[in-house]
Amino acid sequence: MVLFARRVAHMVEVDGRLEGGVKTYRARGQLFFASSNDLVFSFDYADDPDRVVIDLSGATIWDASTVAALDGITTKYASRGTDVTVEGLNPAGEERYNRLTGRLGD
Question: For each of the chain's 106 residues, which pLDDT tens digit applies?
């Protein structure tokens, strides 16, 4: 099981596209404890515009560590004055995200 987790942890892809003053990052893959740490380093915080969209329609959130990573990403952007929207979650991921966001850490 550990070997499987390590193998799929690196199967997450994130690409960004700037269009009309909005940077949209599309994530694809399985987001869980082993892959969510890398997610934080997939964004260009310093050079992104004032509006960022994180599209997770090609990804699945499996656990709280991914929600914590997304919270960290949105907090880092907020400290720079950037508005972030997380969208495209499947029903289970959306429920998990809405239930846990802002409640992890500290």
Answer: 555 445 554 578 999 999 999 999 999 998 988 788 788 999 999 999 999 999 999 999 999 999 999 999 999 999 999 999 999 999 999 999 999 998 876 5
For domain 2-100, give the CATH superfamily. STAS domain (3.30.750.24)
**Pairing mode, strands 22-31 and 13-19:** antiparallel
For the chain, which residues make up each domain, given as ranges? 2-100
Q: Calculate the CA 91 to chain-centre distance.
A: 16
Q: Which two tokens stand for residue 52?
A: 């960022």
